[in-house]
Batch of 2 targets.
Target 1
Amino acid sequence: MSSEKEQVIGSAGNVQFELLKNSLTKSFQEHFTSYPEGLVRGKPGGFVCSQEYARHADELLHFQPRGDDVWIVTFPKCGTTWTQELVWMVMNGCDKEAGKQPLNIRSPFLEFPYLASTKMQGNSPQMTKMISVEMVEKMASPRVIKSHLPLYLLHPNLLDTSKVVYVVRNPKDVIVSFFYHHKLIKIHQFNGTLDEFAQYFMDDEVFYSPFFPHALEAWALRSHPNMLFLFYEDMKRDLKGEIERVAHFLGKTLSEQQMTALVEHLGFENFAKNESVNFEVGKDLGFMNTEGRFIRKGETGDWKNHFSAELNERVDKWIEKNLEGTDLKFVTELK
Ligand code: A3P
């Protein structure tokens, strides 16, 4: 047992962030080539992020929500962007003209400016300048704000103040999608195989880990009147039905014409082509690699094209262990 006191890099309320020691090992550094400072882990809760986030975690915890805000809170790769566009459109009368502005301006990503330190590769100056927390603070109401932070690292009054749409996706497809994300985004720059990435994911050593507590915290709050809990798979199965749920939750009514147009607008083919949401601009700005796309495949069950039988067994056991005693269930395939 070591008597050495760990260095606290930052804190948010009672959560203290310390260096995730494994993230400085040679093998980790060879796999994740953009984290020269390593990653941090919060105690309690185990939340994993960058040192830069840790230094600003308290500021983010105290970021003041407004009564007319709508927050999209998700674990990455669960359909955040899709839901942001859906919510923004419903909130803004399906105004496609105004929707041509980049989504990250219309619906800012709260902690984005604090994800990467200047030491992290791929942290282009344009990227950090695009949005700041001060800009989100000053934004005109009603704001549609995105965050990947678990609820306990957002303002304690968030749910009693603002409407929150939480979206989750089955973890098998999240692993595959996050793997490609780590290859695409330069601040992650993952070099290993999908199998290796899946193990880091299950060991809760990737950005925004751990997955299950993130989802279960929101799941436990799903009956709160200000919470709408969505599944990516339901959006795939019945987009119109899920838009209706969102509109009802937000107190908005869509005409039949608006609904038809919105279903079309949010369909994968159109979405992938839509420059205001597909982040292809990240390639010009230099924080995304040219190979790969943010709006990648958009399917449920893509894990079957990537998992070996052995990996699938490992993932199944991990899911089973983490969902034991809960009533949260995931759909991993659509008929
Ligand atoms: P894949 O990598 O499996 O394709 P997030 O926005 O949370 O980062 O999630 C990204 C995932 O949502 C990607 O998954 C992306 O393709 C998918 N996605 C984005 N828009 C979508 C849409 N209109 N329909 C279906 N899936 C979509």
Target 2
Amino acid sequence: MRRKLSLFFLVTLAALATAGIAAATNGGLTPESAHSPNAARINTAYYLILGFTGAIFVLVEAALVVFIWKYRSRGRPRTIEGAQVHGNTRLELIWTVIPVVILAVIGGFVFYELPGISNVPAANAGDRLNITVEGHQFYWQFDYPNGAHSIADLHVPVDKFVYLTIKSPDVNHSWWVPQLGGKTDAIPGQTNHTWFKADRAGTYVGQCAEFCGVFHEAMRARVIATSAPEYESYVSSQAQKELGRSEFQGVCATCHGMQGQGAYGPNIASNPLLVQPSGLAPIVRNGFGTMPPVGEGWSDAQIKALVQYAKAKIYKGAAASGG
Ligand code: CUA
């Protein structure tokens, strides 16, 4: 009796503890709302599968409860056997054919949706915006057609086909902004592509979806969709102005702290190398000790932007270091 009571207590606790998780997030079982045609198709496929699996779950659990109740032992001795039933052609056909039909419907529907998810709409090939996405340890870099770069925030015009070329110079990452489509891996030595078309202005959040090292969780991304003129003004001037700050805050600060004061990595605020382009470039591009080559492929202009920001906002002077 005591054991039964404590078991009941444990089960109740577990049920209470998990109920909140099940009810959390937007609706619990529903995916993020779609704001790009490919994301909408992924959601449609999700809901079809959810419908089948939900119905099967209810059916199986209900049958389980009914059978447990209806065929309980009612105090009969354990040694008594029930009626022996062998074969029922009709039942066996039914429970073979129904799952085959369900799988065929799901498979057929997914193949019907797939081209609109993975293929770039061909008609728009000439009228699309091409942007390169680089997954680095531990940030996302975006390269725009005019040569501008941004870190962590991807700026795009609303209602425009954006064609992404996805690369990684170091380890496997995965680009994922759920409201704008599925995951696309960023793999060293392999170039992948995906696309989206944001249907409303706003900010869409994403996160690297492939475990890539100690600061995997820091690899968040935002897609900021604005009007075409705002986008043009961003890439033609604002991106360059923000580059140094976003490099420091999005790349260096992850390990060294927002003021370079030291966190996971050492204090760099007082290190003179921080403000010497010739000294900083090889460390940033090639890595140093346990520091990964965070700026692999960075141009001189990108290094220069970082040094300018560090000079203005971070560097405290060698004298302040105190060793
Ligand atoms: Cu990049 Cu996880």
